[in-house]
Amino acid sequence: MIDSNVSLDVAILFGDHGSMIAQPYHLYIERADPAKNMARYYAMEIGQTIFGEACLIRRWGRIGQHGQEKQHVFEREEQAVLLFLALVKQKRARGYRPRSTLRYLQR
Length: 107
Known about the structure:
Blueprint: E1 25-33, E2 38-48, E3 54-62, E4 68-74, H1 77-93, E5 97-98, H2 102-105
Antiparallel strand pairs: 1-2, 1-5, 2-3, 3-4
């Protein structure tokens, strides 16, 4: 007699299914002002928890330092994307921009 319709001895094959993140969302932006000794970064990405939930991970701090991290877990990917886009808009309004590679090429 068994008390479940799923046997623990049966191998479950994992493949593409609806719980995967539809597309990658990654962002890295910086805000620098040498006159104010300001050199900040802000990074975000949307990934997936081990339980299949969408997770927005935010990291921020002084450039070159570890900084802080915060994770937001959502039931649906769309919720994570909406927060991602709202934060991008907020950070752009505060002066954050993509890192310029020109400063690394100049000597």
